[in-house]
Amino acid sequence: MKYQQPFGAADPDASYSNGSRSAGIKGSEVPAAAIEHHQRELVHLITHAGLTPADSDLQQVRKAIEALIAAANGGESQLDTFINTMRQRMLVYPQTLSSDGKINVTSPSAGTILVPPSVTIRHRGVYDISTSAFDETTERTFATAANKTYHLNLALGVGVEALSLDDTTGAGYNPSALAETDSSFDSTYDRALLARIVTDASNVATITPVANLVKLRQTAQETITSTRTTSGEGTFAHVFSGVPLNWARTPDVVGAVGGGRGSFTGSGTSGPVLVKSGSVTDGSGTVTARIDRYGIVPVGVEDTDLVSQSLTAPAHLDLLALA
User: Fold this and answer.
1) What pTM value is reported for the model?
2) Percent of the chain with pLDDT over 90
3) Of 182, 184, 267, 294, whose CB neighbour count within 10 A is largest?
């Protein structure tokens, strides 16, 4: 459709004028095409979208545009297209919309796991998925076997939303035979780890729900007095009680250990330092530090020049965990 200039105007882009009777200025004459063409253009748009032109509906142009956009996107509306695009691009972790970010998974009887209805998980910060969307019998109820460890997961990708109970020793789920605490099983942008389920010899389940929040944060402080024996090399360990987490993602941890060395004599004393993973051995035995999604067990270590001696020393821990 082209612009129809006033009748008799030589300039194809000439503007219309209302004219002025008092000033003796004649208004523009309107050619028939200026009235007819835009109507026919809009009626064509309406009928092309599969609608029937009607005097009673003055929103048909908008509806026609929305219908054509939906048809071009496989039936999605413009809003659906926008949301699905954000569900693929927003770098936001899943969030369970409960007070603690956890879902109350239950075991109605030995050998059975049930995911409750009416719990909402937000995908990439823009799209809510309710567990009620899954059938209780075929999609929210799972059978377990004895002496197994499972991960309960929710796939969140566009068009592939599904709950699954995954055997952590299964070749399909864990082809590299990693420990179930490995961070590769953490929640990702498109998959939410909801719980760990461990069954005993009687197929009775111990369920550990884990928190899915956009940001996970925990601080901890602890002061202890350790009485242990130094090793043959003078190593002395401070064993802290640990910080429980039960998160869906493995944290990054920063922290420091203070104290300790002031109670020891000898120029060879150094430390204590924070050990976040691995084993430490002194004269009292071996202690293991760890960090995983379920908790943090830190160890403080100092090197002394006091060999195989029983010592008592204080230590203070400051810790920050983020995921």
Assistant:
1) 0.74
2) 77
3) 294
